[in-house]
From TrEMBL, chain A:
Cleavage (site feature) positions: G200, T201
Protein name, as recorded: beta-aspartyl-peptidase
A GO molecular function held by the record: beta-aspartyl-peptidase activity
Catalytic activity: Cleavage of a beta-linked Asp residue from the N-terminus of a polypeptide
Active site feature: T201
UniProt entry tagged with the keyword Hydrolase: yes
Source organism of this protein record: Musa balbisiana (Banana)
EC number of the protein: 3.4.19.5
Domain of life, source organism: Eukaryota
From TrEMBL, chain B:
Gene3D superfamilies assigned: (Glycosyl)asparaginase
Cited InterPro entries: Ntn_hydrolases_N (IPR029055), Peptidase_T2 (IPR000246)
Positions of the catalytic residues: T203 (nucleophile)
Site entry (Cleavage), positions: E202, T203
Highest taxon in the source lineage: Eukaryota
UniProt-listed Enzyme Commission number(s): 3.4.19.5
Name of the protein: beta-aspartyl-peptidase
Catalytic activity: Cleavage of a beta-linked Asp residue from the N-terminus of a polypeptide
GO biological process: proteolysis
Residues that, per the record, bind substrate: R231, I232, G233, D234, T253, G254, E255, G256
GO molecular function, one term: asparaginase activity
Subunit structure: Heterotetramer of two alpha and two beta chains arranged as a dimer of alpha/beta heterodimers.
Length: 342, 332
């Protein structure tokens, strides 16, 4: 396995793609072990496939990319397989504090929320902040109050908290560390009975045939995080960004993504240095410490890239010319699923 | 061996009719804080220590909108936020939703230095403050009579005081096209529904480069007058209100939402890094091309000891000093 960018290209992706829709989504990047048991792998692949199909159908039906990324992320939030919404990892107090962000590349309008504990779909509340307040970002009590004003769906914490995450927190406390993933047992720590990876974040980026772009990201954050900790997801330019060049959603170690302004940098490299989407994304990934970051991105031209410098990243993408891909580890690694263009 | 340089700001968007004694008072505070920073740099302190020290001074002084003198939420309370970034290693720390911490910028520094995270907010940040033993006071300490008065006026006008924009027809949307500052029908300059004479001063910040060539930035604010409780602006967001890297350090002020959309602080640095622009060029380009209809100002320093600033508002409280003895404080 080589270090650096793992952006996958099949032969068909090399062909110049002028316009046409494209979509990419992720369910988190991290140290996902190759030994991930089938019963942990299968539901995640199924969820990725299902969300990809939903997103593709919406793009084919000419839904605006902003709607598409929201609906895909809602679906990812509702899945207990990923670290967002239901299935969010827990704070050090055993609670959930969810955050999300959405950005419209066309207008650069954006919305973000943090510190949610009862809102079923954080991404939708982020969208309401964008559309129904004069602000961009609401957090904690203020965000929860806004949620009630808006009448969005809320639920008791039992909706979000899964037994696996309760165990994850227990393991993290015993290992006395904050994890971005915890599939690998730490020396001396009690081995986890859970060999999977509830890591990172979920996100979706999309572009339509007119080159309109949008990005959305949602997360439960870090296991055993301090109460009140905010990660990269709701920070425009860090975990989420979209403008007229591209849309980006990042995942990994929040603190690294913030200081590297990952999502903004991909777009800035395209605009200021003239790099292509793939070059720009690879450039950013390579300069972030190894094991810390992955991202999905689409460009106004309908290109897609999904590089990561972690062991794996739950991801899926599709483009209008029929290409689609679902993957976990770098392409070419045994067991990685790929569906070359039909 | 590089030359040191420092710049400070006390907010962009100033009433052109601000009484002379208020202007002089602001200049005096800026001059004093600049002096504190310059002395630190001369003594060889690292840039990150200097920006924290200077912003603490600005927070403590009630003249500007941060710490004591912060703008008030809808509920009449204070929720403060701040961030600090050390270009050396691009380490950063941010805080939001502080209600009792006397110096938010110092808590942001502690988040950076003493927590495993980059950003803590609201109850969690307040708990951390107590764990760290920083100075805390009652929320009433931060509230000034002036701001209570302005909040009342803002509520009567049923608008948020952005400080530098004319009223927009549908003020409840986060619109990217708000229109430029201009004269109203009664001939007086207005900012978002209020006569410009009565809005609150806005945000403080400091950028510095030390003689080792390391840059750092810090920004602190109480945010928008009459904001929703829980609203986070640009000041604590790395890449928006604050940014520092090997090339430069930037601190912004102005319409928070516009600064966030344009990731203003990061863009200045990215223009230098990726497009090869010089410091002032990058500042000018970012303000001209990235803000759309938004109003903002910023200060910046480069690793080479240059200082720069820019603003598209009516005025920005600011000051700068460089190792060769140059010092300037200005508003217009």
């Amino acid at each position: 396995m080589t270090s650096g960018s793992y952006s996958h290209q099949s032969k068909s992706a090399v062909r110049d793609r002028r316009m046409g829709w494209a979509i990419a989504l992720h369910g988190g990047a991290g140290d996902i072990p190759l030994s991930l048991p089938a019963e942990r792998r299968a539901p995640r692949e199924a969820a990725l496939r299902h969300c990809l199909e939903l997103g593709v159908a919406a793009l084919k039906a000419n839904r605006p990319p902003l709607d598409v990324v929201e609906l895909v992320v809602r679906e990812l939030e509702n899945s207990p397989c990923f670290n967002a919404g239901k299935g969010s990892v827990l704070t050090t107090n055993g609670t959930v504090e969810m955050e999300a962000c959405i950005m419209d590349g066309n207008t650069k309008k954006c919305g973000a929320v943090s510190g949610l504990s009862t809102v079923v779909n954080a991404i939708s509340l982020a969208r309401l902040v964008m559309e129904r307040t004069p602000h961009i970002y609401l957090a904690f009590d203020g965000a929860e109050a806004f949620a009630r004003e808006q009448g969005v769906e809320t639920a008791h914490s039992s909706h979000f908290i899964t037994p696996e995450n309760v165990e994850r927190l227990k393991n993290a406390k015993e290992a006395k560390r904050v994890q971005i993933d915890y599939t690998q047992p730490i020396k001396g720590a009690i081995p986890s009975s859970i060999g999977d990876s509830q890591i990172g974040t979920v996100g979706c980026v999309a572009v339509d045939g007119h080159g309109i772009l949008a990005s959305a990201t949602s997360t439960g954050g870090l296991v055993n995080k301090m109460v009140g900790r905010i990660g990269d997801t709701p920070i425009i330019g860090a975990g989420t960004y979209a403008n007229s060049y591209c849309a980006v959603s990042a995942t990994g170690k929040g603190e690294s993504i913030i200081q590297a302004t990952v999502a903004r940098d991909v777009a800035a490299l395209m605009e200021y240095k003239g790099l292509s989407l793939k070059e720009a994304a690879a450039y950013v990934i390579e300069r972030t410490p190894k094991g810390n970051v992955g991202l999905v991105a689409v460009s106004a031209n309908g290109e897609v890239t999904m590089p990561f410098n972690t062991t794996g990243m739950f991801r899926a993408c599709a483009t209008e010319d029929g290409y689609s891909e679902i993957g976990i580890w770098p392409s070419g690694i045994n067991g990685d699923l790929e569906y070359p263009n039909k | 061996m590089g030359c040191w340089a420092i710049a400070v700001h006390g907010g962009a968007g100033v009433d052109p009719k601000l009484p002379e004694e208020r202007q002089e008072e602001a200049r005096r505070v800026l001059r004093r804080c600049l002096g504190v920073g310059a002395a630190g740099l001369r003594a060889g302190l690292p840039a990150v220590d200097v920006v924290e020290m200077v912003v603490r001074e600005l927070e403590t002084d009630p003249v500007f909108n941060s710490g004591r003198g912060s703008a008030l939420t809808q509920e009449g309370t204070v929720e403060m936020e701040a961030s600090i970034m050390d270009g050396r290693g691009r380490r950063c720390g941010s805080v939001s939703g502080l209600t009792t911490v006397k110096n938010p910028v110092s808590l942001a520094r502690l988040v950076m230095d003493r927590s495993p995270h980059s950003y803590l907010a609201f109850h969690g940040a307040e708990d951390f403050a107590r764990e760290q033993g920083v100075e805390v006071v009652d929320n009433s300490y931060f509230i000034t009579d002036e701001n209570v008065r302005i909040l009342k006026l803002a509520k009567e006008a049923n608008s948020i005081v952005y400080d530098y924009r004319v009223p927009v027809p549908s003020a409840d949307t986060c619109s990217a096209s708000a229109g430029p500052v201009g004269a109203t029908t009664d001939g007086g300059l207005q900012m978002n529904g209020l006569p410009i004479s009565i809005y609150a001063p806005e945000t403080v910040g400091c950028v510095a480069v030390d003689s080792g060539g390391w840059c750092a930035a810090a920004t602190s604010t109480g945010g928008l007058m009459n904001k929703m409780s829980g609203r986070i602006g640009d000041s604590p967001l790395i890449g928006s209100g604050t940014y520092a890297c090997g090339a430069c350090a930037v601190s912004c002020t102005g319409e928070g939402e516009a600064i966030i959309r344009s990731t203003l602080a990061r863009d200045v640095a990215a223009l230098m890094e990726y497009k090869g622009l010089g410091l002032q060029e990058a500042v000018d380009y970012a303000l001209k091309e990235r803000l759309d209809e938004g109003k903002a100002g910023l200060i910046a320093v480069s690793r080479n000891g240059e200082v720069a600033h820019g603003f598209n508002t009516v005025g920005m409280f600011r000051g700068c000093a460089t190792e060769d003895g140059f010092m300037d404080v200005a508003i217009w």
